[in-house]
Amino acid sequence: MIRRVGTDTSKFPGAADLGAIGTLEQVAALGLEGAFFRSAFALSPTLDAGELSEVTDAAADLGLYLEVGVAKVNPFATPEAPEIRRLGEGDYLLGMERIIRAVTAAGITELWTATANYQFRIRGLYACDRFRTDVDWADQLAATAKVLERLAPLLRETGAHLNIETHEEISSFEVVRLVETAGPDAFGITFDTANVLVRGEDPVAAARRVAPYTRSTHVRDVALHRTDDGIGRFLAPVGKGVIDWGALLDELDRGGATANLSIEGVIGMNAEMPLYVDDPRWWAGHPDLTADEFAVVEGHTARYEERARAGTAPGLDDLRARVDSDEALAFITDSAAALRAALAARVPTSTAA
Q1: From which residue to which does the signal peptide run (predicted)?
Q2: Residue 348 confidence (pLDDT)
Q3: 326: helix, coil or strand?
Q4: Sign of the dihedral through C-alpha 18, 20, 21, 25
C-alpha cells in the first residue's frame, strides 16, 4: 500500500539556500514524510561519502524517506548535462557510475532518471525532444535502451533501481517497454501523474499501465484548457484539477506499486505545455495513443472549462499568471492535505485481485 507523502525538492521554495539538511528539516517541519532530491549533487557537490552519510542520517533521524536522481539516460540529451561527463573525466557512463556508487554506498537505492528535456524558452512543437528532426524519437528510444543495458549490471551489483520518469517527452507505453526490456529487477518507473496528460493519456489508464513497475512518483494535478495551440496542460494542486485520485491510487495499489508519493510543486509558473492536437505531426508522433483514451482527455478539458466559466476553477489568464513563493509552498502543503484525505477515504485494494 502507498502511504507516505513527501515532496520533490527541486520545486521546494528556498531549497537551494537551505541546503540538503536544512531542506529535510523544513520538509519535516511541514509534516511531510520524505524528500526526493532530483540531483545527487544537491546532497554533496563533490559526492563526498561523509557528506552523503550526514544527509542520509539526518533523513533517518527525522523519519523521512530519501530518494535521489542520477542523470538523463538518452544519449541524445546528455550534452545538456556536461557536469556528468566532467565527473566521468569525459566518459558520461563513468560519471553515472560514480553517482550510483556514491549514493548507494550511502544507502539510497531508489534513483530517478529521465529521457529528455522540454525547452520552455522555445514555443512550438520542437520545444519537446520527442519531435526533434535531427534524430527520430524511435532512434532516441533505441539508443536509450542500449544505455540501460550497459547500466544494468551496476544496478544489480549495488541493489539499486533506476526509475525512469514518465517525463513530458515520453509516453507511459514507451517507459513500460523500456523497463520490461531492460529488466524490472534493475529498473523501475517514476510515475509523474501530470506529464502523461501531455502525451494525451488518461492518467488513470496510465497508472494501470505503470503500476507493476512504479517505485517512485512525482505527484501533481492538472488543469486543461483549450488554447490557440490546441489544449494547454497546466499544473494544479492535488484535488484542484481533473485527476480522479481515488481511481488513480486504486490502480497503483492494484498493480502492486511500492512508491512513496512525492509532490512536485511549481516554481514561477504553472508550466503550460501544449498538446498540439490540431497538428497532424503531433498525432503521428503518438502511435500507441487510442481514440478512446484521448476522448477521456477531451472530456476532462471540457469539464474543466465549464468550471472555469462558472468561476469555480482558475481560467486561462489565471493559469498563465506568475506563481510567487508563498503560492508555491501552498501548492505543496495543499496537495499533501488532499492526498492524505484521498488516502484516508479509500478502501484498501488487494494486489492479489
Answers
A1: none
A2: 59
A3: helix
A4: positive
Question: For residue 352, what pLDDT is reported?
Answer: 39
**SS3 label, residue 180:** helix
The C-alpha atoms of residue 92 and residue 75 are separated, in whole angstroms, by 9
Pairing type for strands 230-236 and 273-275 reads antiparallel
The tens digit of pLDDT for each residue in 97-107 reads 999 999 999 99
Among 281, 72, 66, which Cα is nearest to 168's? 72
Cα–chain center distance at 325: 21
8 A C-beta contact, residue 211 and residue 256:
yes
Report the CATH superfamily, name and number, of domain 5-221+235-268+323-345.
Divalent-metal-dependent TIM barrel enzymes (3.20.20.150)
| CA angle, 59 then 338 then 227, to 5° | 110
Task: Please list the ranges in the chain whose pLDDT falls under 50.
Answer: 350-353
Alpha-carbon Rg of the chain, whole angstroms?
19
